[in-house]
Amino acid sequence: MIGVGLIGGSLALSIKKNENVHIVGADINIEEMRVAMAHAVIDEQADDVKKEAEMADYIILATPVEETANWIHVLSKWTLQQNVVITDVGSTKVAVMETAFLLKEKGVTFIGGHPMAGSHQSGASNARADLFYEARYMLTPFEDENPQKIDALMHLLAPTQAHFVFIDAITHDQVTGVISHLPHVIATSLVRQVKGYSAKNTLITEMAAGGFRDLTRIASSSPHMWRDILKQNRYTLLALLDDWMKEMEQVKNLLEKGDSHELFHYFSDAKQFRDSLHV
Ligand SMILES: NC(=O)c1ccc[n+]([C@@H]2O[C@H](COP(=O)([O-])OP(=O)(O)OC[C@H]3O[C@@H](n4cnc5c(N)ncnc54)[C@H](O)[C@@H]3O)[C@@H](O)[C@H]2O)c1
Ligand SMILES: O=C(O)C(=O)C[C@]1(C(=O)O)C=C[C@@H](O)C=C1
């Protein structure tokens, strides 16, 4: 397990429910390694990552996505087990799968993965074995991947009790752009706007309640993780932000007109769609 933070740690805790699993962890943050060992998230800490990776049956990359791409470069230079399956948990897939081509060219299996559950909290101390229970778990194997390797990975991940969904990397990045990355940008920019007002009036933060909390919780997420996600999915985000600005223009127009019927429809249309969603 390379990266023993929230997602790597949660996956480790859940994978441990399989028989005959021994999880060796590696992390650039020594404190995270200490926490992961102290909470029995991993069985052993890697003193020599190369040596451990070359002995591993599975390698899971659970680092921020730019680091994941770097690790794929590194792994492509090592002599891994012939049957090794490498996967990741990153929130973007196009850049990761493009880099993973380096492994494919060497006959090494890489199957992209992305569990659709998480938190604004980071680190192994927040890891939970049930984090992925009933969540969607997207997999992006190369088109001609050996089905036995995919089955082996799904077997390893079965204790997560997540529902696997196969998807191509481009569609993945468009879909997550819409339902995860754009909402993060909106929450973050809203918090920044409120921060500006709060400098002039302390009542603003004092009066903040449930509505503000629910809409902005995710702005407390890891800046490192989100910087990397936005870098890798920036073209999708640029198009989505154009649409978002058009949406805001529409709200401005509605307010300028002040038409009760149109304003009511704006809210009722959104409520109807929101009420129909499973989340
Ligand atoms: N947090 C979420 O809600 C969520 C959900 C699904 C997927 N993801 C994805 O999971 C991945 C990990 O996110 P997280 O929430 O667990 O973050 P996290 O900060 O809790 O954990 C990431 C860990 O990676 C370590 N790390 C960073 N660079 C490294 C490197 N070069 N080598 C080794 N270790 C390194 C960090 O020290 C940290 O312990 C990201 O790619 C993210 O996009 C996150
Ligand atoms: O619940 C949260 O805090 C999350 O942000 C989780 C969340 C999301 O739903 O957008 C964040 C990033 C992921 O790649 C998957 C899930």
TrEMBL record:
Instruction: Read off the Pfam families from this record.
Output: PDH_C, PDH_N
Q: Which of the seven top EC classes does this enzyme belong to?
A: oxidoreductase
Q: Which residues form the Prephenate/arogenate dehydrogenase domain?
A: 1-279
PROSITE patterns listed in its UniProt record: PDH_ADH (PS51176)
Task: Describe which pathway this protein belongs to, using the record's wording.
Answer: Amino-acid biosynthesis; L-tyrosine biosynthesis; (4-hydroxyphenyl)pyruvate from prephenate (NAD(+) route): step 1/1
Q: Which reaction does it catalyse?
A: prephenate + NAD(+) = 3-(4-hydroxyphenyl)pyruvate + CO2 + NADH
Q: What is its EC number?
A: 1.3.1.12
Keywords on this record?
Answer: Amino-acid biosynthesis, Aromatic amino acid biosynthesis, NAD, Oxidoreductase, Tyrosine biosynthesis
A biological-process GO annotation:
tyrosine biosynthetic process
GO molecular-function annotation terms? NAD+ binding; prephenate dehydrogenase (NAD+) activity; prephenate dehydrogenase (NADP+) activity
Under PANTHER family, the record lists: PREPHENATE DEHYDROGENASE (PTHR21363), PREPHENATE DEHYDROGENASE [NADP(+)] (PTHR21363:SF0)
Q: Which family does it belong to?
A: Belongs to the prephenate/arogenate dehydrogenase family.
- The protein, known as: Prephenate dehydrogenase
Upper classification of the source organism reads: Bacteria, Bacillati, Bacillota, Bacilli, Bacillales
